[in-house]
Structure formats: structure tokens, C-alpha cells
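Re: folding output
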Amino acid sequence: MLLNALRALLPNASVNAIHINHQLSSNSQDWLNHCIDQCNRLNINLETVSVNLSGNTGEGLESEARTLRYQVFNSLLETDDLLLMAHHLDDQIETFFLRLMRGSGVDGLSAMPEIRALDKGYLGRPFLSLSKAHLENYANENCLSWVEDESNASSLFDRNFLRNQVLPLISTRWPMYRKPLQRSINLFGELSKQLDQEIQPELQHRLTADGGLKVSGLMDIDRSLIKRLLREWIQGKDRLPPSQSQLDTIIDSVINAREDAQPVLKLKDYCIRRYQSAIYCTASLDVIDMASINLAVDSPVMIIGVGQVTGRSCQVNHNREYAIATTCLPLTLRFDYQGDSIKPANRHKNRDLKRLLQEYRVKPWLRDRLPLIYSGEQLVAVADIFVVDGFQANVGEQGIKIEWITPDL
């Protein structure tokens, strides 16, 4: 119905649809065929993606499915794109009750926002003020067809239990319960926005250049404000906010750790790490176990758990601009170094790589996933940090500059 409404409002606009197949139902192919038929009818481009749920993440199938969905959304969104979802008022109320039963605070009880930032774009929910019955009436009046997920009939899942048993019972006593609940949800949302605005100056003051959060003096402010600050910081990275108990653990075990400690707290699909006087929100990082990869000039290489590495052709214009000499081509990318000490270009002494990475203030969790650039068996550069002495291009020559983009690391 959302697509039908969009096409009616914007008959000439470019609209794309996304269908994610979780492969959990025997009817999933029929649902895909239905989406294809509807998009063909409306002249809308359809992007289809299948995901595989492992069921062993410890977060439950519903949560794992959500995580995978948002990974797909983030991969497809371009700058300032608007992703619309058809959640309605009944969905909103279910979310409110689920979070109420989990002991959520102001943010959780404000349920789903009508619009929020999502990676490079935005996520909007234009139907949040409309009930399911209202939308079904529209669909019937306009002769729209739809498919039902048979799992909705099972009350094994918490949301279905609310939908099938709890809320119908509430409706027998308070048939107009949706409107007052909607007002309460909106009030929680307004309070949440107000608190966010009040905490912004402190958050901006504490942000590091590389996205961390400075913790020096943080324990001097009220603990409830620290939690608010942490939630706002983590949500700003498009991560699900921690629970109250997890926020307490971040404060007690990560923020309050010794400055020379390197504590890590794993939360769902991300980690909170301490490094010196700041904490960082990073992806959960697996061990890199990979042989060498060819690094062609001006051809980006994307590696899960590492990021994007590019050997970019350039002209060296001054003696403080370091690039690999073209005589080192072809280049390969590796992740292990067992050789002798090395000397970065324009340094006076050789040092072992471990000591150099400390001097260059490379975060500990990145040190075993640094892209090491080789020419044959010779290490010629360490990521975008330095070129090894003797392998740099001279001023006025063409060279290869390494670019390393590390999202969420």
C-alpha cells in the first residue's frame, strides 16, 4: 500500500523498492513473486536481497533479522536517500508495550520516530498515526492485494502475543485505547528530543576527531547524564542503544578502567572499547585470516573487517608527501609481518613495527588488521600511515598513495 500511495502522490518520481527475503518461510518465494508483480504494475524498480540467519548470535531470530535488514539498507542507501517503511499505529503501540515490559526509559517508550537519520540517508515512517484498520479499509476500497505472513498467527513471538492476545483483551475494556496511548508515546518522544538537545553541547565537546568519546572528567557529572550521553553517542552511530544495565557496565568496566587498560565490552553486533582517554564504538571484529591480495592501481579493494583499500595514483608535489614509487609495482596486500625492524621515509632510525604503530598512535584493535603493502616479498608501506624508506617516490614523480577507509572500526 505504501508503494501505491507513493506512486499516486508522485506519479513521475523515481521510486525504488527493497524486498528482503529472510528465507524463514516456505512461502517466501510466493511473497517475492507478489512484490515483483506489484512493482511491475506500478513501474517501480525492485531490489531483492536474500539474507541468511544463523540463529546462534545470542540475540534471537527477530533481533538478528533486524540487524541483517539494516545492514542491507545501509549498503543500498546513497547520500540523502529517504527509505520509507509502512509501520502503522498498531505497530507503534506494540513496540511501546514491548519496551515497557523490558523496563525501557524515556527513549524506549517514545517507540519509533517518524523520521531519523540512517547511515548516509534517512528513514521515514509516514503511517505511524494511522491504525491498521484504517489502512486495511484503504486497501479494500482501492482493490489492493496483499499477502499475510503465516507466522503472525503464532503467539510464540512476543510481538504476536501482544497483537493476538493482550491488545484485543485491552480493547474489550478500553476500545479507544490507541489515541491516548499515541498521545503518551508522542509526549515521551518530545521529552526525549528535549533531553537530546540539552546533552548536545556536552556531546560535541567530548567527541574526538576520530569519532571517539573523551572520558576525562566524565565521572564528575551526574550518572544519569553520563548514560544519556552514551546513548546519544551510540545512537548517532546507527547502533541499537544499550540497556540500562549495559550502560552501567560501560561506565563501571570501560570508562572507569585504568587509562593503560584496553577493556572491551561486546554488545550485540558492536563493541565499546577504551583506548587511552577515550572510548570507541566499533564493529565486532573477527580475526583476519587471509592470504595476499593483488592491489591494482586505482581499483578499490573491499575487505570485511578491514574496510576499503585503494592504491591511488598521484603526483608527488613536496618532500613531506609520501607515496610508493611506481618501480615497486605490482603491489600486493597482506596482514602479517615477520621481518626485521623498518624505517619510515625521512625517519632517522629503524624500529620494530609494533613500536612504530604505538608511536603513530594506531589503536590496538586495528594493529592486526592493518593493510601491509608489499612489492614481491618486500614491505613497502604500512596502510596509509607511512612508506618504508627507500621505496618512496621523489618530488615531481608519479607515485601510489594508499587510501584506507575504515568504517565502524
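--- second protein (sequence, then structure) ---
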Amino acid sequence: MYEVNGWHKFGEQDHYETGCDPDGGYVSFAGNERWGAETIPDLLDMLRSFVGVDDDYEIELDACEEDGRVDISVLETAHSYVADKWDIEKWKRGELDLWYSTYTFTVEKVERRFVRLKENDQ
């Protein structure tokens, strides 16, 4: 079984012409949602669904050379919704602010077994 226990999101205000703005503000959130699946592809589908992207959306596995790290980066509105094609068109014209947000998860392989409770099982 593969599990993710919690997540972190970091987002920066992003401008179409100039990219992320270090003075434009950022957001940082964390959550303690937990997902589990028998296969890695099934678990990745759950994470995509949580972020709000479809199954074809590319994600980065073992991001930053960290085993088990999954990063999903998206453009979002100020209300944390994944930007749709209309939002992106407005953003390109300078009519809407979007945020470049990265959701980070860590996948662990969990092997469950019964423990003997009468003795200190370590």
C-alpha cells in the first residue's frame, strides 16, 4: 500500500510578461488529508483530483531529487481554483492576477502487519 499523509502548498503571484513577482506576495498552506492506494498510479490520480487537474496533467515525481516527493504545479486564481482557459486569456492580457502554486506531497510505502500487544514489539 502507498500513502500520502498531508501536503504543503506554496504559491507566488505570477505575471504573464514578467513571471513570479517576489514583491507581489505569496501564499503558504498545509493540510493533513491522507490518501492511500494499492498502486502508485491510483494514488497519483487521487492527488491530481485533490489539486483539481485531470489525469493527463503532468506532475513531477521525485521532485528536487527527493525520493517519494510529488510536486503538482498549477496556475490558480486568488481563490485557489485552477485557472481555466478563460482565466489564462485574461491573465495574458493583464486583466487578472494568477498565482503559480506548487502542491507538494510525500509518498510512503506502508507494509501493515499485526503486532503482538502483550510484548514490546519493535
